[in-house]
Design brief:
A hairpin with an 8-residue loop joins strand 14 and strand 15. It contains 10 helices and 22 strands. The chain starts with 6 loop residues before the first strand and ends with a helix. The protein is globular and about 60 Å long. The strands form 5 sheets. It has a 6-stranded mixed beta sheet with strand order 13-14-15-12-6-16, sandwiched between helices. A 6-stranded antiparallel β-barrel has the order 17-20-19-18-21-22. The protein has a 5-stranded antiparallel beta sheet with strand order 8-9-10-7-11, with helices on one face. Among the domains are: 158 residues, Probable tRNA modification gtpase trme, domain 1 (Gyrase A, domain 2), CATH 3.30.1360.120; 100 residues, Elongation Factor Tu (Ef-tu), domain 3 (Beta Barrel), CATH 2.40.30. The chain is α+β, with helices and mostly antiparallel strands and 394 residues long. The chain is 20% helix and 32% strand.
């Protein structure tokens, strides 16, 4: 999610600030310490007076509720599949209804225009949920001969993440959400007598769910109060975005526009597994087939400092890359972040210099992503979650 200049909330914003949208959940949590930032034309709570470390551990050990700016765009009509096969670098015709799939949109030159999750709600109806960018314009620009309607379902998104999220969602749905709702599965459910769309996805690397409102059909404050009442007894807290950002870095989850952009190919961002070069006709395919393979995006660990976006990485006296994002990891006990190197290479395992704006020059180690849980056992809810939880609790 691209950070914009922060605004301090005085809790009296109208429904819209200029052309940008204030969350319908805003008044459920905002206070005089709330700091808002902007993504996808939507304000979100970057900080809410909460202790980022405390809510991080609440997320890891219990559950956290996030009000996020992700925005679904609806693509429907007889040619919806054909248009999406043209737009997306990954095959989607074989998707089942009520399934999600992470997908990339590339430019004609092979750069990454955007990422997001595609959900199939019906045979000819999809939602592409994206964190930021001009998706509507991109779709309309390439919809020259397809019988497709691109529209805004006016859905707001909550993320409920953490090891207790399943029990909370099971209780909130009166038992309708069970373990049969697997990772990247989705569907319509009633939460507190309100119909919403729910997916087993998230931006934290934890077991979790995303809850999509249905425009004016959803009473957002009532939904919020219902979820808080169900989650609080199990240790759930509301969290601003800072704890989510720390956790997503640990999990190797990338942010469109900051960690990668149109200047990078999926290969350079380490996302080649989400490109199907055997699929003909998608935008960017020819450029990607001719592209030189090689990774430019890696993780870094440093005991001496928490890296910040814009910090330089030096090999000797030569600048070889730049930090895109960073944080102090409470779990790993060190500073972590991502490095975008100037050139692809086998950087993993090297010890380089982090030129920190806060701490000066310190040694850092370059590592592959993610920092742990490479098999994504935590969000998939596989065996090993209990062992991980016990380790966290010790």
């Amino acid at each position: 999610m691209n950070d914009q200049p922060a605004l301090v909330s005085d809790c009296i914003f109208p429904t819209y600030v200029g052309s940008n949208e204030l969350s319908p959940f805003h008044h459920c949590y905002a206070n005089d310490q709330t700091v808002l930032r902007l993504a996808a034309g939507r304000f979100f709570a970057h900080h809410n007076g909460d202790d980022p470390v405390a809510v991080y551990w609440a997320l890891r050990k219990h559950a956290a509720l996030f009000d996020v700016p992700e925005r679904p765009v609806e693509i429907s009509g007889p040619d919806a599949v054909a248009l999406l096969e043209r737009i997306l670098a990954r095959r989607i015709a074989d998707m089942a209804i009520d399934r999600g799939r992470y997908a990339l949109i590339c430019t004609h030159q092979g750069g990454i225009f955007m990422d997001g999750i595609l959900f199939r709600l019906a045979e000819d109806k999809f939602w592409f949920v994206h964190p930021d960018g001009d998706l509507d314009t991109w779709l309309l620009a390439h919809n020259d001969s397809f019988d497709v309607t691109v529209s805004d379902p006016k859905s707001r998104v909550l993320q409920l993440q953490g090891p207790h999220s399943y029990q909370i969602m099971h209780d909130a749905s009166s038992g309708a959400i069970t373990e049969d709702l697997k990772y990247f599965h989705s569907g319509f459910f009633d939460l507190g007598d309100q119909r919403v769309y729910v997916s087993r996805t998230g931006w934290t690397g934890e077991l979790g769910y995303e809850i999509y409102t249905l425009g004016d059909q959803t009473d957002c404050p009532r939904l919020w109060d219902f979820l808080i009442a169900k989650g609080a007894p199990l240790g759930m807290v509301f969290s601003s975005m800072q704890s989510m950002n720390t956790r997503r870095i640990e999990a190797g989850i990338l942010d469109s526009g900051s960690d990668f952009d149109t200047s990078m190919t999926p290969f350079e961002a380490g996302l080649e597994r989400f490109v199907d070069l055997d699929k003909e006709g998608f935008i960017g395919r020819d450029a990607l087939k001719a592209a030189t393979p090689g990774t430019r995006l890696y993780g870094l660990c440093s005991d001496g400092a928490a890296p910040n976006g814009g910090d330089l990485i030096l090999d000797g006296d030569t600048s070889v890359g730049k930090v895109t994002t960073g944080a102090q990891s409470p779990y790993l006990g060190c500073g972590i972040g991502y490095v975008r190197f100037d050139e692809p290479g086998n950087w993993s395992g090297k010890k380089l210099t982090l030129r920190s704006v806060r701490s000066g020059d310190v040694i850092c180690k370059i590592v592959d992503l993610p920092f742990y849980d490479q098999e994504k056992r935590l969000p998939r809810g596989l065996s090993g979650r209990l062992a991980e939880f016990n380790k966290l609790s010790s």
